[in-house]
Design brief:
3 domains; transcription regulation; HTH-type_LysR_regulators; 8-stranded mixed beta sheet; single chain; about 290 residues; D-Maltodextrin-Binding Protein, domain 2; DNA-binding; two-stranded antiparallel ribbon; Arc Repressor Mutant, subunit A; alpha/beta; LysR family transcriptional regulator
Length: about 290
């Protein structure tokens, strides 16, 4: 059986609604003979009578009433297709894939994404946490539409824009000897033991480079995989840590400003090409950079 087309369904509904082929033809601006022929073709296609001809016009048979109900549903879905595709084109619908480092996720992205979602409730966001180096690669490899990462040398040809400033601090337990210091150079804390993040994170790499510049190494007592775990270990007295200021304050740790230049980090937004971004992605980029 060949598939029935939307025009035939619309004409059939027009005939059922108008009660005569002539009235339906006039409403749809089609010759009455063409409408009559199309109705005959639809009946032949299904092999069942759909319209009962009377001296007053036409009325649907039982099969015709069933087809009318199905046609209303099908045409509504066709109309919905057009609406949804228009929403995708306008940026009010779609899927946006974001890869972001943990610092941006725990400090800034939740609020920014929430305010974007309030304006664009039909845009679905997929957020994947990765170290900054992997975020950049995900954008370059088209595994993510948008990347949020710490400004680090990477060598990939992607377009970047400033997002936020991320201030790193030395976090200590409240009773530690350094807890009441206003500021400190990282080199002056190298005699302490540290609770560190994985070695492939931007923070750990910064600490290693800073220690190496003084011919020293970071004394890592325990390594953890998240800020939450790091804060719990620091609170338990297992070492000091370097983390974003907002994270340390959220967990009630003592905060000591770091005077090192690398402690003021720039967070960037990266995309492969602004011109090639789908509309929903472009709107989110504009929202994030405006934030």
């Amino acid at each position: 059986m060949p598939p029935i087309d939307p025009l035939s369904l619309r004409l059939f509904l027009a005939v059922v609604d108008a009660g005569t082929i002539a009235a339906a033809a006039q409403r749809e601006h089609i010759a009455a003979a063409a409408v009559s022929r199309r109705m005959s073709e639809v009946e032949a296609m299904f092999g069942v009578a759909l319209l009962r001809r009377t001296n007053k016009g036409v009325e649907p048979t039982e099969a015709g009433e069933r087809l009318a109900a199905l046609a209303h549903r099908a045409l509504h879905q066709f109309d919905d297709i057009a609406v949804q595709m228009r929403d995708f084109a306008s940026g009010t619908s779609g899927i946006v894939r974001i890869a972001a480092n943990v610092s941006s996720i725990v400090q800034f992205l939740p609020r920014d994404i929430q305010s974007f979602a309030a304006r664009h409730p039909n845009v679905r966001i997929q957020l994947d946490e990765k170290p900054s180096a992997q975020v950049v690669r995900a954008v370059a490899d088209n595994a993510a539409d948008i990347g949020v990462f710490t400004a680090v040398p990477h060598g990939y040809a992607i377009h970047t824009m400033p997002y936020r400033t991320d201030d790193l601090v030395l976090a200590t337990p409240p009773g530690h000897a350094l807890a009441h210091a206003q500021s400190i150079a990282f080199a002056d804390a190298l005699d302490e033991e540290f609770v560190a993040l994985p070695s492939d994170t931007a923070i750990s790499q910064s600490l290693t480079r800073a220690a190496n510049a003084f011919g020293r190494s970071v004394r890592v007592r325990i390594q953890v995989s998240s800020y939450d775990a790091q804060c719990l270990m620091i609170e338990a007295g297992l070492g000091l840590g370097v983390m974003p200021e907002a994270v340390a304050r959220q967990h009630g740790l003592a905060v000591v400003a770091l005077t090192d230049a690398w402690a003021a980090r720039e967070l960037l937004i990266g995309v492969r090409s602004l011109a090639a971004l789908p509309e929903a992605c472009r709107r989110l980029v504009e929202h994030l950079t405006g934030a």
